């Protein structure tokens, strides 16, 4: 059962106002379901929207931010708690450690890097937690296609590609996570 969910998403709002609406609705749902939000600690863009929405609905929000970003004044001040860490590698590990599952909403290079690390760690056995991408309006379709190409070309085993959930539904993501069984750790011959 998912009690805390790490959410990766954009520190920018994106050009379509529906992205902010999505993040806000997602934050409301987390709070309404009693699922704590673990995220990057920022106050801007989708990050700020999902955190503020969860807090506004009485949810628990745990931020993990780097010292550099904290010093730039990017952190949200009203969080349940905020951990300040030295660098991005420690931030990603701390978020993964605090969460029972990991999901990416739309975002940019940082979001892609974070969620890619989460599912690549599944293949090497360093992440047994479910990973999902909220595929809002097909946002992550190119990534899904690329993973399929990697599988066909023999660079990604099907059990690892299929262990990543792509969905446009909060309920489907949570069903996937609640029933998730991590694939066996890759072995080398």
TrEMBL record:
SUPFAM superfamilies: MCP/YpsA-like
Keyword Transmembrane: no
Alphabetic keyword roster: Cytokinin biosynthesis, Hydrolase
Pfam families cross-referenced by the UniProt entry: Lysine_decarbox
InterPro entries associated with the record: LOG, LOG_fam
Gene Ontology biological process terms in this record: cytokinin biosynthetic process
Gene Ontology MF terms in the entry: hydrolase activity, hydrolyzing N-glycosyl compounds
Gene3D superfamilies the UniProt entry points to: 3.40.50.450
A single Gene Ontology CC term: cytosol
EC number: 3.2.2.n1
Cross-referenced NCBIfam families: Rossman fold protein, TIGR00730 family (TIGR00730)
Similarity comment text for this entry: Belongs to the LOG family.
Name of protein: Cytokinin riboside 5'-monophosphate phosphoribohydrolase
């Amino acid at each position: 059962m998912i009690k805390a969910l790490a959410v990766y998403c954009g520190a920018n709002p994106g050009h379509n106002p529906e992205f902010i609406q999505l993040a806000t609705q997602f934050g409301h749902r987390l709070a309404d379901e009693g699922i704590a939000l673990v995220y990057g600690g920022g106050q801007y863009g989708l990050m700020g929207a999902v955190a503020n929405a969860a807090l506004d609905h009485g949810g628990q929000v745990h931020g993990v931010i780097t010292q550099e970003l904290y010093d730039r004044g990017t952190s949200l001040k009203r969080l349940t708690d905020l951990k300040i860490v030295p660098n991005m590698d420690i931030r990603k590990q701390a978020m993964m450690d605090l969460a029972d599952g990991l999901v990416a909403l739309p975002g940019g290079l940082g979001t892609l890097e974070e969620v890619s690390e989460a599912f690549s760690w599944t293949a090497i056995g360093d992440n047994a937690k479910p990973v999902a991408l909220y595929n809002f309006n097909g946002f992550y379709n190119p990534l899904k296609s690329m993973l399929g190409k990697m599988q066909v070309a023999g660079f990604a085993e099907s059990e690892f590609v299929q262990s990543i959930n792509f969905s446009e539904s909060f309920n489907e993501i949570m069903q996937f996570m609640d029933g998730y069984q991590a694939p066996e750790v890759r072995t080398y011959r």
